[in-house]
Amino acid sequence: MTSNGSSSAPRSTGAARDDGSVRSIQRAIHVVTAMAEHPYPVGLLEISEYVGLSRASVHRILLSLVRLGWVEQNPLTSKYRLGMGSVGVGIVGMVTNPLIRDAHGYLTRLAEWSGHDAVLSTLIGGKTVQLRRAAGSNTELIDFEAGHPQPAYAMADGKLLLSYLEEAEAEARLRSEGMRAFTTSTIADVEIMLRELRKIRAQGYAVDNSERFEAGRGLAVPVMGEGGLPVAAMLVLGRLDPARDAETIRQMQSLARGLSDRLKSAGELPTAAYEAFYVAPVAPPSS
Predict the structure, then answer these.
(1) How would you class 1 by CB atoms within 10 Å of its CB: exposed for 0-12, middle for 13-18, buried for 19 or more?
(2) Which domain holds residue 58?
(3) Which candidate, 70, 75, 48, places its Cα nearest to that of 59?
(4) Other Cβ atoms closer than 10 A to 200
(5) What is the CB-side half-sphere exposure of residue 73 using CA atoms within 13 A?
(6) Do both 272 and 188 map to the same domain?
(7) How far apart are CA 85 and CA 28, in angstroms?
(8) What is the per-residue pLDDT across 227-262, written as a single tens digit (0 to 9) for each?
(9) Domain for residue 92, yes or no?
(10) Cα dist. 203→35, 162, 188, 231, 253 in Å?
(11) Which of 45, 68, 87 is the last residue of a domain?
(12) What is the pTM of this model?
């Protein structure tokens, strides 16, 4: 009983029920995110190990997601993939999201200025996913499909977004990826990559020196949202001349600021995805 004679039990029970519901939702989203990181169908054991939940718990979640159409199961292999419900929601989001919509003009300007592909991307677990692309006239050997995940640790945009995470969270995502080498330049060691991420966060941009593809390099800068945290990465990739990196980065930073300012002026600037995992920016000292 409280001091005024009323019982607090119903509120406590309700709060516990709400907490349980939130945990269930978080687990379901974790499973869907894990599946989004894998471009091919995955089995129950693989999903369970990836998300760190028991097979029984993951199986219950998958049954619910299958019933809702968010996940599909192959009856021959018993493996799972994202269902048409997930696909439909994702496509609608890409069409209606103001960041993706408005980015097109800025990416086109970057592609025309640089002669190389310009991409807007986001972080999904340990993968970077392309959201929008403008083709450059000089890029011939590197091809991307919208929505196709790439290992974040081997791409400039992925490294950039990882650098804004709490270090423990970034480390967990790196270890979950396995960090295999794609080229002789790939950083495939967790500790070395963590040092690289600290450097990227301090300088405000990332460089991929043929770490994913031998044929090209990449440069990435953040598109900042409210609170000084990134909502996406702006990437340019191709046969980039290292001698022009500084000039290209300045141009990209200007375009990224322009995109953020445009969205903010319209009241459509989003907050950072994965905000719970990001390190809050340090406020400048007061004068």
Answers:
(1) exposed
(2) 14-87
(3) 48
(4) 21
(5) 13
(6) yes
(7) 14
(8) 778 999 999 999 999 999 999 999 999 999 999 998
(9) no
(10) 33, 14, 22, 18, 12
(11) 87
(12) 0.74
